[in-house]
């Protein structure tokens, strides 16, 4: 079973709308850095100057009211997730009526000569222990790729604006060195199968956004 899957936003957002969304997200970068504490580099080797290191402290979809096109991204994640569950995840011991998914989502901004280091979102493996699905949606990208390792082989996925990739949280992943003067802008996210799968006592629990 190929647990690494990509989905296209198609005509739900035009190229210009995606570009405008990127501009909006970059305008929020300093606000996120100033408003939320450094949480961890999560193995990425990013620093306190990167918004990725605040990923458990807030949810990027808090800005939906301010920028409604973010709701299109949210709905795109939701429909892609259910497609993944129906067509990829079916051998596992979950049925859809047992799922009550919530998403934790954050902004990534990488600039010239930077990269996201090798990391994974969970140590839970394919034996059935993992309790969420991870993903990335590319928005502002230029000749960049993300690499995914499933424990036995590495797969390269070219980052294309408006494309989303879903993968198990135990997949190790990283990016190539960003060579463009234009920032690489993506949203990272984890979709928990159920809200009660969230760890207790950490900030992102209160920032989860439910699908239903």
Secondary-structure blueprint of this entry?
Blueprint: E1 5-8, H1 15-27, H2 29-35, H3 69-87, E2 102-110, E3 132-140, E4 145-149, E5 154-158, E6 163-167, E7 172-175, E8 184-192, E9 209-210
Antiparallel strand pairs: 1-6, 2-8, 2-9, 3-6, 3-8, 4-5, 4-7
Number of helices: 3
Assign the CATH superfamily.
q2cbj1_9rhob like domain
Number of strands: 9
Strand content: 15-25%
CATH topology, by name, is Jelly Rolls
CATH class bucket = Mainly Beta
Q: Calculate the mean pLDDT score and round it.
A: 90
Radius of gyration: 16 Å
In this structure, how is the largest beta sheet organized?
6 strands, antiparallel
- For the record, the CATH architecture stands as Sandwich
Q: Supply the number of structural domains.
A: 1
Low-confidence spans: none
The quaternary structure here is single chain
Overall form: globular
Helix content: 10-25%
Backbone structural class: alpha+beta
End-to-end separation: 28 Å
How are the strands of the biggest sheet laid out side by side? 1-6-3-8-2-9
Could you state the order of secondary-structure elements as H and E? EHHHEEEEEEEE
Task: Write a short abstract of this structure.
18% of the residues lie in helices and 25% in strands.
Give your account of this protein's structure.
With 212 residues, the protein is an alpha+beta fold. The chain has one domain: q2cbj1_9rhob like domain (Jelly Rolls), CATH 2.60.120.620. It has helices spanning 15-27, 29-35, 69-87, and strands at 5-8, 102-110, 132-140, 145-149, 154-158, 163-167, 172-175, 184-192, 209-210. The strands form two sheets. A six-stranded antiparallel beta sheet has the order 1-6-3-8-2-9, with helices on one face. The chain has a three-stranded antiparallel beta sheet with strand order 5-4-7, with no helix packed on it. It is globular, with a radius of gyration of 16 Å. The model has no long low-confidence stretch (mean pLDDT 90).
